[in-house]
Amino acid sequence: MTFRRKLLTKAVLLVLIIAVLGWIVMTLWNWILPTLVVGAHALDYPRAIGLLVLCRILFGGFRGHGGWHRRKQWEHWQRMTPQEREQLRNEPPSASRPNEGIGA
After folding, report:
1. pLDDT digits (tens, 9 = 90+) for 28-54
2. Segment Disordered: which positions (predicted)?
3. Could you give the C-alpha distances from 42 to 32, 64, 78, in angstroms and in order?
């Protein structure tokens, strides 16, 4: 399969997933909220998509998953000896260290 075809397939799949999630949000909102909250109105499809995006921004962000990187860090932490862990805790963050060996 060519790169363009894979990219197109992923794009179509992403649009389909967003459409289905928007429909689920709209259906759940219209099923639950108007009966529980006085004055709550039914939600139309574009507003359901907007609510989905708003919730993603507020609660999930758009920073990616990062799960693989965190798991590798955890595995590295588990392999460290207690002395290495203590040394890592006590050393200053790399951004505050002077550049060693650069320009010398």
Report:
1. 999 999 889 888 899 999 999 999 889
2. 81-104
3. 10, 31, 50
